[in-house]
Amino acid sequence: MTRFNYLALLREFHPRQLMAFLGRRTAAWFALGLCGSLLLAFMEAMMASFLQIFLKGLGLLSPGIAIGGPFRDLNATPTNIGIVLVSIGLFRFIGQYLVLYGGSAVQEHMTFRLRERLLTRVLIANDKGQVPASECNHYFGQCFLNSGYMCGVLLQGVSLALQACALLALMFYVSPAESAVGTAGLLVIGVLSSFIVRRVRIVANRIPIENRAVNGGIIRVARNWMLLKVLKTEGLEYARMFSSVEKLRNFTLEANSRSHFASALTPFLGIILLFLVILVSQHTFKTPAIALVSFLYLFVRFVQGLAGLVAMGGGAVYYAPHFREAFHFYFSVKDKKYASPECTLTPTAEALAPEVTFEDVDLSHGSQAIVRGLTIRLAPGQQLGLVGPSGSGKSTILAALLGLLAPSRGVVKVGGVVAARILTDKILRVGYVGPEPFLFAGTIRENLVYGCGDHSEQDVHAALGLANMADVINGFPGRLETKLTENGEGLSAGQKQRLCLARVFLAKPSLIILDEVTANLDVETERGIVESIHSLAGIATVVFVSHRLSALKYADTIFDLGSHVKQE
C-alpha cells in the first residue's frame, strides 16, 4: 500500500471532490467546529488580559504599571471579576461543545455516508458484480470506522491549529522576544516529533493489509469449520489465524505507542523550554512582570495545544490508509437513486414461459475465459440441466442468464429480450434459489412472502405443499407465525432450502433458476421436490444446476460443461 501524503491527496483530487466526499452535513459540522475553535482562541486572549487586571486587583502588581487589553479600565471588584470569569467560562463551554460534538458529528456522518455507499454498491449499483463478503466486512467495519475517525481527527487538528495560531499571534503581541525564543525551541521539538510520526505512518500502512487477511480468514474458517473438523486441520488453521490476528495487534499497538509517545513528549519538552524562556527573559530581556505573566499563560496553553496537535497528527497518520481507501471506494460507486420498495415478482400482466437462448456465447472474468462458444436453445416451458465440475462455468452461465455478466462475445436472450433487461422487465417474473438459503429474522410467513406481494392462504399452503414443507410448518406451535432467527436458525439445512423453494412456487415465476437446491436434501425429499418442479413443465422455463443427476431426471436437455456434451 502506498504511503499517505496529504499534499498528494490535494493535488490528486479537486476540492469539489473532497466536498462531495464529505457531504453537506459533514461539512456543516466541520464549519461549526472551526467556529468553536475560533471562539476558544478568543477566550484565551480574554483570559490572558483578565489575568493582568486580576493580579493588579490582588495587589501583586504596583498600581503604576500600565495594563493592556480589553479589561484595562475594569474596576477589579469581586462582582466584576465574577461576571468576567463566568462570561469567559460560558463562551469557553460553547466553543468546547462545538469542537467536541462537531468532531463526533463529523465522524458519524462520514461513517454513515460510506456505509450507505457500500449498500448502494452491493444492492443497487452492482454493475461491477458481486462484492465478496470479506470485502463487505472490511469496508463496513474497520475501514469506514477509521475513515470516520480520520474526519473527526482532522476537525480536532484544524481546530487546535487555529487556536495555536491565534495564541502564537497573541504571544508575539504581548512579549515578542520571549515568543521568538519559545518558537525556535518548539520548532526543534516539532522536528523531533516528526521523526517519530514518520515511523507511525510506515506501521499504519500495514494495518489495512492485515485487517483484510483477518477478515477473509475468519469468514473462510467459519464457513468450513465442519470440513476442518473432518480433516483435523483446525489446529493448523488456528495457528494461521492466530498469526494474522497477532500481527494486526502488534502493528496497531506499535502505531499507537509511537503516536502517544510523540504526544506525551511534546508537553514534557515544552516544560523544559518554558524554564529556559523564563531564565532568558529575566537575565536578558528584562520583560515587565505583568507582560511575562500573560506570556507564560499563553505559552503554556500554546504548548498544550501543540501536544494535542501532535496527538491528532499521530491519529491522522494511523487512520490515513483507510481514509484514502474509502475515498477511492466512494467515487468508484456510481450514484443511483433508490426506488421505493415494490414486489418485483408480481406482474402487471400474465407472463408466459420464455424461450432461453445462448448464441455462440463467450464468458470471462477479467482476462480469464470461463466459457467459450456456448450455444443452447431452450424452448418455452422446457427444463435445462447444467452439470460439470467446479470451475467449469455453471454459476457464470447463471450470472449471464440473469444479465449480471455481459458476454464477451455472442448474445443471451430470454423471451426474445437481451438478458441484461430481464430483471427490470415489468412482465417477466424470475424465481431464484441459490446454494445458500436466504432467510432473515421474522416469521415464517414473512420469509415466505418476501418479495412476492400479497397472496391468499390457499396460495401459501399450495406453495408449501409443492415444496414438501406443509407438514413441517403445521408441526410448529405458531405455524406460519413461528418466529425465525437470522439465517433461519432452528430449521435444518434441507428445511431452509425447501422454504426458499416454497417462496419461488408462491411467486409463480415464468423463469425459474435453481442452483444446487437439492444438495442438502435427502433422497426422498429430493424426489418430491423434483416431481414438483416437473409439474411446472410448460408453465415455467427452468434452468437447474446440480451435481446430482437424479435431480435432473425430468430435464428436457442436460448440458455437461465438463465434456461439452448435450443430452436431449
Q: What is the topological layout?
A:
Layout: H1 6-12, H2 15-57, H3 78-124, H4 133-174, H5 176-204, H6 207-223, H7 225-231, H8 234-285, H9 289-332, E1 356-365, E2 368-378, E3 383-387, H10 394-401, E4 409-414, E5 417-418, E6 430-433, E7 442-443, H11 444-448, H12 457-466, H13 470-474, E8 483-484, H14 493-507, E9 511-515, H15 523-534, E10 541-545, E11 557-560, E12 565-567
Parallel strand pairs: 3-10, 3-11, 6-9, 9-10
Antiparallel strand pairs: 1-2, 1-4, 4-5, 7-8, 11-12
Helix pairs in contact: 2-3, 2-4, 2-9, 3-4, 4-5, 4-6, 4-9, 5-8, 5-9, 6-8, 8-9, 12-14
Q: What can you tell me about this protein's structure?
A:
This protein has 568 residues and is α/β, with parallel strands linked by helices. It folds into 2 domains: 318 residues, ABC transporter transmembrane region fold (Up-down Bundle); 212 residues, Rossmann fold, CATH 3.40.50. 60% of the residues lie in helices and 10% in strands. The protein has 15 helices and 12 strands. The strands form 3 sheets. It has a 6-stranded mixed beta sheet, with helices on both faces. Strands 2-1-4-5 form a 4-stranded antiparallel beta sheet, with helices on one face. Strand 9, helix 15 and strand 10 form a beta-alpha-beta unit. The longest helix is centred in the middle third of the chain and has 52 residues. 37% of the residues are buried. About 2% of the residues have low confidence.
